[in-house]
Each structure stands twice: as structure tokens, then as C-alpha cells.
Design brief:
single chain, 4-stranded antiparallel sheet, alpha+beta, 5-stranded antiparallel sheet, elongated, 224 residues, Pili subunits
Length: 224
């Protein structure tokens, strides 16, 4: 009895079916891989957003009335939005001194919104010299808006701090440079997660006694 073999048509049909199954499996695998990558990217973006909001809340809620000196000896307000480079700049407490080095627990920080990215900058000393440069932390990309508003003691909101009224009352004397707002509101909008708004009370706590502000700190300024 002669064995029955496969015809050319049957072979071609089997090859075609195998190819279709293989293409389908590859498509499903590719889609699953893309979905996993997108999920990981979204998760990383959300973690960066949470970290950025936490940094903002911590910096603003720990602001203290400590005036610092700029690169040329000029007094800088305890909190200010008047520097065109930064959305807000302030002196805060809570810079934990883990190593016990000879430095203050106060820290000067600034938030910069540039090229759809939010940066946090900090100085290793409070009162700067001409060669003092800030360190930079790139915290969040894909930002479409970052705004900060300030409430004074009378409950009036201002787009800038010190407010125009406060600047006029202080004049050229530099008085009231340490005055902080009663509260700060910030709005952060990202292309992925939309708009977030937070209202932060500024306690204006006591400036802690510590080592001289110009002493170089040990450890990284981003801590605490």
C-alpha cells in the first residue's frame, strides 16, 4: 500500500497557518511589552510627581524668617518670588545634620521652572560669596504650568512676594525683609496627570540657633 504524502497545496497551507499564528503571537507579545513599558513609565512619572509635591510642601511649610546675603552682599528676603530666575526662593529649616558637622540646620532653596521641567536648587551656605553656586536637582519633566501665590496676614492673595505694599512700606531700609506670607498656594500642571493645587500654611517658626551660616556643611544639601 502506497503511503499518502502531502500535496504542495497542503504544505503551503500549513506554512501559511504557522506564519499567521506566529505573527499573531508576536503581535500579542509586542503589545504586552509595550503596555508593560508604558505602565512602568507612567508609574515612574507618578513617583516623580509625588516626590516633587512632597519637596514643595516640605520646603514651604518649613520656611523661616531668615534673611540671607546674596553674591554681592545684598540682603535677600526670607521668601521671595522677585528673582526672575526662580519662581520662589526661601530659607527653610529642617536640614538634618546627620554627620554632626559644623553647619546650620537652615537651608536656602529655590524652585526653577524652565523648559517644561521643574528644578529644585539649594545652596550649601546661607550667606553667599561671589563664587557660591547652587546645586541642582531635576525633579519633574513634562510640566506645562507652575505658579505660586502668597497670602498676607490680612488674607489678601498676591502674585508676588514680598507684595508691592510690603515693598513700599519697607522702602530702601530693607526692613520687613524677614516677613513671611501667612500661606502659600502652588499650582502644578503636568501633561500626563493634569492640574494639582496645594495650600500650605507657613508657620513662620523660630530660627534655630546653630553654627555660623557660612560654615561649609557636610553631606548633601538635598537631605532633610
Amino acid at each position: 500500500m502506497r503511503a499518502h504524502g502531502f500535496t504542495l497545496l497542503e504544505v503551503l497551507l500549513a506554512v501559511a497557518i504557522t506564519a499567521i499564528i506566529g505573527m499573531g503571537a508576536y503581535y500579542l507579545f509586542d503589545q504586552a511589552t509595550r503596555a508593560e513599558q508604558a505602565m512602568k513609565a507612567r508609574s515612574a512619572q507618578f513617583e516623580a510627581l509625588q516626590r516633587t509635591v512632597a519637596w514643595l510642601e516640605t520646603d514651604l511649610s518649613q520656611a523661616v524668617p531668615r534673611v540671607v546675603r546674596g553674591e554681592y552682599g545684598e540682603p535677600l528676603y526670607s521668601m521671595s518670588s522677585r528673582n526672575i530666575l526662580y519662581t520662589v526662593e526661601l530659607t527653610r529649616t529642617g536640614w538634618t545634620n546627620y554627620a554632626g558637622g559644623r553647619r546650620s540646620e537652615l537651608q536656602r532653596v529655590a524652585w526653577q521652572f524652565k523648559d517644561d521641567t521643574l528644578y529644585r536648587k539649594y545652596w550649601r551656605v546661607l550667606d553667599r560669596a561671589q563664587d557660591t553656586l547652587p546645586r541642582e536637582q531635576k525633579l519633574l519633566g513634562g510640566v506645562s504650568e507652575f505658579e505660586v501665590r502668597f497670602m498676607d496676614e490680612e488674607g489678601t492673595w498676591h502674585e508676588d512676594w514680598p507684595s508691592q505694599a510690603l515693598l513700599q512700606s519697607a522702602g530702601d531700609s530693607g526692613e520687613d525683609a524677614s516677613i513671611l506670607p501667612r500661606a502659600v498656594s502652588f499650582t502644578l500642571e503636568t501633561k500626563v496627570f493634569g492640574r494639582i493645587t496645594r495650600l500650605i500654611e507657613v508657620p513662620a517658626g523660630r530660627v534655630p540657633e546653630a553654627a555660623p551660616a557660612t560654615s561649609p556643611p557636610e553631606g548633601e544639601g538635598g537631605e532633610g
